[in-house]
Write a structure and sequence with these properties.
Layout lengths: L1 H19 E5 L6 E8 L2 E17 L2 E16 L5 H12 L11 E9 L6 E10 L2 E12 L2 E9 L24 E9 L2
Antiparallel strand pairs: 1-3, 2-3, 2-9, 3-4, 4-5, 5-6, 6-7, 7-8, 8-9
């Protein structure tokens, strides 16, 4: 009789955990990551591809998650001239910016949130760019299996200093904003 009770308790625990904790993987084909960087004389924008990602949700909160972004996939969408487009993408991949040869991926790890209220939650995570990791926070909107957000990143915290007014004087029209934005729309399965 004791063994039957222990088995029932164990089954109840396992079932309650599986109902409460749901691991989801990102649909790479149905998700999008868009970037936008501004400078004194204008802006550039484009996309970058996710390589992998997952979230674990329990009790209406994200309890863990991680995402990997493939920096070799960076695309500029605003420059129509192929030569200038190739030049900009090459510069973004260079050591002046993301050093893609040495650092081909960006990581977002330890993704956690408070409880979702009206499908919104504050998220914290560790962002790693060029081998440097810093904590970040941002708001997420959940709609069914979709999670959307806009993340503001201070590139200078990750040793991406090219054209930064914090580190270089007399840049004039060549100064680039230190903060760039990443608009994310994830479809989780």
């Amino acid at each position: 009789m004791k063994n039957t009770k222990l088995i029932l308790i164990a089954i109840t625990f396992i079932l309650s955990y599986s109902v409460k904790a749901q691991e989801m993987t990102v649909s790479l084909s149905e998700s999008a990551v868009k970037w936008n960087a501004k400078k004194i004389t204008g802006e550039h924008f484009g996309t970058v591809a996710l390589k992998a990602g997952s979230l674990i949700v329990s009790n209406n909160a994200i309890i863990d998650g991680s995402f990997t972004i493939d920096m070799n996939s960076i695309v500029c969408s605003d420059l129509e001239d192929p030569e200038w487009n190739k030049k900009l993408v090459g510069h973004l991949k260079s050591d002046d910016f993301f050093g893609v040869e040495k650092y081909p991926v960006v990581f977002l790890k330890n993704v956690k949130s408070g409880k979702f209220k009206e499908n919104r939650a504050k998220v914290t995570a560790d962002l790693t760019i060029k081998g440097t990791t810093h904590p970040i926070s941002f708001d997420v909107l959940r709609s069914g299996k979709y999670y959307t957000t806009i993340i503001k990143v201070d590139r200078t915290q990750f040793n991406v200093r090219y054209g930064s007014g914090k580190f270089f004087d007399n840049l004039g029209d060549n100064m680039i904003d230190d903060v760039f934005t990443v608009e994310v729309k994830l479809k989780m399965n």
